[in-house]
Amino acid sequence: MASHPSSAPRATEPTPRIDSELSALKDAVSVALEYAKELGTSAAEVAISKQQGLSVSTREKEVETVEFNKDGALGITIYRDGRKGSSSTSDLSPEAIRQAVKAADGIAKYTSEDPFSGLADPALMAQDIRDLELYHPQDIDAEELAQLAIRAEEASLSVDSRIRNSDGASANAHTAARVYGNSHGFLNGYCSSRYSLSCVVIGEESDGNMQRDYDYTVARKYHDLLSPEAVGLQAANKTLSRLDARKIATAKMPVLFAPEIATGLMGHLIGAISGSSIYRKSSFLMEALNTQIFPDWFSIEEQPHLIGALASANYDSEGVATQDRRIIDRGQLETYLLTSYSARKLSMTNTGHAGGIYNWTLSHSNQTFDDLVKAMNTGLIVTEVMGQGVNGVTGDYSRGAAGFYVENGEVLYPVEEITIAGNLKDMFMGIQGVGKDRDLRSSIRTGGILLSEMKIAGN
Length: 459
Description:
Layout: E1 2-3, H1 22-38, E2 43-59, E3 62-80, E4 83-89, H2 94-108, H3 142-157, E5 163-182, E6 187-204, E7 210-219, H4 228-241, E8 251-257, H5 259-273, H6 275-279, E9 300-302, E10 325-329, E11 332-333, H7 340-346, E12 360-362, H8 369-376, E13 379-386, E14 396-407, E15 410-423, H9 424-429, E16 431-434, E17 444-445, E18 449-457
Parallel strand pairs: 8-13, 12-17
Antiparallel strand pairs: 1-3, 2-3, 2-5, 3-4, 5-6, 6-7, 8-18, 9-10, 9-12, 10-11, 13-14, 14-15, 15-18, 16-18
Helix pairs in contact: 1-2, 3-4
InterPro entries: Metalloprtase-TldD/E_C, Metalloprtase-TldD/E_cen_dom, Metalloprtase-TldD/E_N, PmbA, TldD/PmbA_N, TldD/PmbA_sf
Domain Metalloprotease TldD/E N-terminal: 44-105
Keywords: Cytoplasm, Hydrolase, Metalloprotease, Protease
């Protein structure tokens, strides 16, 4: 990786498109699998990824850094008589690959037997490989990315005299190629692209105290990014709205999580229903399968094959076909998130979740975010959470927070230096509404989430 702090971007030579390397990456995986077979291993799997990208950051409308990266590695896992060994190499020459395979096999001969390890069932391998339109290469140079970041900063600084300066903007263009193969005969790969722009703004309060906030845009297609002016304007307005924040009195009241915070709330659900948490008995949702954990109007749909979405995939990191499924159906937990290992440990069926989740879409209560504010009447909008105060075993939740105090359905003033607390079981069951104006910038697609009550620790 090269980093070049500079007042102006350096010119760069055009970089070959990542898809031009996909065939060679597949060949490298084939070489590794063939050599593993020659060694007489029980099974093998090989994954390889290559990424390349350009990032430009600016501060106060001057270019601060220009970074180009291009890296990748091949990882090989060997299974021999219930034992497992892994190694990796960034050198994709046939000899280097052979040495990596040999090293993994050598490790496997000395590890402990584990009856649950091994490849996923061959019947689960993806067969229908669709074009999900994840790869949209764009010829972009550092100068163009720098201009995006600078335009975002300029827009933010022009909004209000209380915006004192920018804390930086960043524009990024990245592409990747990934290939996975195993000794079941599965071998496939794909390319993807991701572009993003963010801007952080600092505002000054009347007493000299500072507040900051940010906004960002991310997309598979470069031309689907929001304009730099829109990002800068939103960052500035969010910062201005936080000026002259105060504490509130300790109380119990309804809480409305803003969409970007609501995704984190659902992230705790992911951890709690992951197979590894269940077989380790470290989840507050032990024994929760097929039971009611949300209100009966609430559902979560997983849609791995949405065209061009940020978390779409034909198969997981073990080659298992992804599929549409209900995670939550009318409030009931329908499935745990299982890899081949966790499925065997729990005597259950692999759900194809090695590597993560795929485009969770939450049902909504046919209300916009503004509707939820009015429905809350008096309570707290949470726009930022801090700290790691979440216990995955008990579900106890306690985090620092900032946001806005609402009374009679109207936002009165910004709030800071408070703590919100509850238990995730109660919080999930206490969901009163979900906004229909969803944030699509992550793998969890949701609007704001209104909870009936949480404890607020303030003055």
